[in-house]
Amino acid sequence: MKRTEISRGLYPRAPELRRSTELTPAEQFWIIKHGIKMTGMPAWGVTHDDELLWDVVAFVRKVPELTPEQYQTLVKNAPKHEEIMHNREMDGDHQHGAHEH
Predict the structure, then answer these.
(1) Phi, psi at residue 26, to the nearest 5°?
(2) Could you give phi then psi for residue 72, rounded to 5 degrees?
(3) Collapsing DSSP states into helix, strand and coil, what is residue 38?
(4) Given a cut of 60, is residue 95 above it in pLDDT?
(5) How far apart are CA 15 and CA 12, in angstroms?
(6) Pick the residue with more confidence: 25 or 5?
(7) CA distance 70 to 50
(8) How many C-beta atoms surround the C-beta of residue 60 within 10 A?
(9) First vs last Cα of the chain: how many Å apart?
């Protein structure tokens, strides 16, 4: 994606996780969960659970291999946060209910 007026004005710049091949998945997870102070990298752990954050790590690690078309298709078809959380709640209720019987 092209840099925007906002992204060009960030100082210090937010990390480009897709280019961070020297980072381990655990390091990427920490950055995504906690953010980085004084940059445009928000802390997603406040609003997203660890399971979803690991999905983000997997996606970020896959991005360098994707064509622009593949990227756009994935983004377009990605479930919304609310859908993911609802499905996880339903899975949890279903599993919980199965253990009660």
Answers:
(1) -65, -40
(2) -60, -40
(3) coil
(4) no
(5) 9
(6) 25
(7) 25
(8) 20
(9) 51
Handedness of CA 43, 47, 49, 55 (dihedral sign): negative
54 vs 44: CA distance, rounded Å: 11
> What is the phi/psi pair of residue 41, to 5°?
-90, 105
The angle at the Cα of 84, spanning 78 to 88, to the nearest 5 degrees, equals 150
CA distance linking residue 18 with residue 79, whole number of Å:
21
- Amino acid in the structure at residue 74: L
Secondary structure class of 72 (helix, strand, coil): helix
- pLDDT on residue 69: 94
Q: How far apart are CA 23 and CA 48, in angstroms?
A: 21
